[in-house]
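Can't paste images in this forum, so I'm doing it all in text. The chain is below; anyone willing to post the predicted structure tokens underneath?
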Amino acid sequence: MSDIAISRALETTLAYVHVGTGTGAEVAMNPVADRSPMPQRKIEPDHRPRMTALVAARAHLAEADPVMRRLIEAQPNLDPRAWLSTLPEMDTFGTLLWQIIGQQISLRAARAVLARVQTAFGGQLPTPQEVLATDPAVLHEAGLSRRKVQTLRTLAGEFVAGRITAEGLATMSDSEVEARLTAVPGVGPWTVHGFLIIALDRSDVVLPGDVALRRAIQRAYQLAERPSHDEVLAIAEPWRPYRTLASAYLFASSSAKGMLDRMEW
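Text version of the structure:
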């Protein structure tokens, strides 16, 4: 992607998200303009820094990898976090709950189980305290295997005891988060990598054990066979420090069909 193209993309992105122009600004600068009260306008969060970062990340990926360039050109305005709007609002523990539910089952099945868990807890995702106070059979009947129920209860105990906290995880490096969470039986790298992306919005995460991602890489790179764990890492090396965004483009390229088979190995 040329410097001119990057500059134009940045200008377009910033123009799209900027909301500070219009009648209010004109009144402020024009002493004879109509000064009747302006209607209240909801103050939206400033997304410009994030959009600027996305432009830079796309430029890096397009320069580093011709396959990434093609995927980006096909979807130049992809929002890697847009899919999260289809899920309920999740805090740190809720995100780990979602990741544990999703182990070794399809995305569709995981959504169904999550909805049943919400129903079982009055329409909300449970807190660690509520998980421990609830009969394990409730979670099992919602669709979690007994192993997942035990994992979730062990994890909830760590939160309740204060040995794991949202604040503590947020201050750790990716590797430190992985080391801490995988110390909980039943929490593997796939679960942690998804947590890093969803809850902590980390920019340089790749899921080498994810079947959907491996299929997407095989298709995008026209490989004869599905890449191994180590081969995924080797292919992803030029994407640093934006492996999360690169993975999002690969998932998007394979569409929903490829995302329905998420597994932890």
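Residues 24 and 38 are 7 Å apart (CA to CA). The longest helix spans residues 48-64.
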